[in-house]
């Protein structure tokens, strides 16, 4: 379209002969604006082995070289080392972080095709964003974003919904403004100051009398079933068992 957006042509037939790529796309809707077709070359995959050291930029730590915007970076359990001190604005075409892996990434890490996190990602503060977490591009998966003493001191105001669980394990207050979580929330150490919206009715929330939300908690619930909800003030917390029938 002329507005700068793109639409996938899913029924195209792509062939290659002697280095010449040909595309045939039938039954397309009539075009009313100037249109350009782009052929995306399938990206490659490189898996972290960590056999050399903890350096992201060391080629021998990867099965197919250091990731770039054309490569998906895959992390699985069993590596002798995992990346440490990953540089600010490091990029990969995509990241696939699997269950059991704890990966430390800078808060401005760029994964243009998405970051599938089914393990744990510890968010590391950079000098570029000293106060707030900007969010990873196209975050998915059922994993956890972990905020520790090495992390930012809060979320960016107006940040998009976070599609992971969130764990806070750092002392002091963590600024949230209003943040929507599509996963669960664990408050191990520290307080969230702001308003939290939990959209998943089955998402877990864990807290303690010394680690809690200073603000509001709004959550979705199923139309039936038993649920435990924390209510009260910081010094008087209680769990209430609610049965909802409609």
Molecular structure report:
By secondary structure, the chain is mostly beta strands. It has no helices and 18 strands. It has strands at about 15, 20-25, 45, 70-75, 90, 95, 100-105, 110, 115, 120-125, 140, 145, 165-180, 185-200, 205, 215-220, 225-235, 235-245. Strands 7, 10, 12, 13, 14, 15 and 16 form a 7-stranded parallel sheet that branches. A 5-stranded parallel sheet has the order 3-4-6-9-11, with no helix packed on it. Strands 1-2 form a two-stranded antiparallel sheet. The radius of gyration is 22 Å and the shape is globular. It starts with 12 loop residues before the first strand and ends with a strand.
Helix/strand order: EEEEEEEEEEEEEEEEEE
Distance between the termini: 45 Å
How many β-strands, per DSSP? 18
C-alpha-based Rg, rounded: 22 Å
Quick overview of this protein structure:
By secondary structure, this protein is mainly β. Helix content is 0%, strand content 42%.
Keywords:
single chain; 246 residues; mainly beta; seven-stranded parallel beta sheet
Secondary-structure topology with pairs:
Blueprint: E1 13-17, E2 20-24, E3 44-47, E4 71-75, E5 91-92, E6 94-97, E7 102-106, E8 110-111, E9 115-117, E10 120-124, E11 139-140, E12 144-147, E13 165-181, E14 185-198, E15 205-206, E16 213-219, E17 225-233, E18 236-244
Parallel strand pairs: 3-4, 4-6, 5-8, 6-9, 7-10, 9-11, 10-12, 12-13, 13-14, 14-15, 14-16
Antiparallel strand pairs: 1-2, 17-18
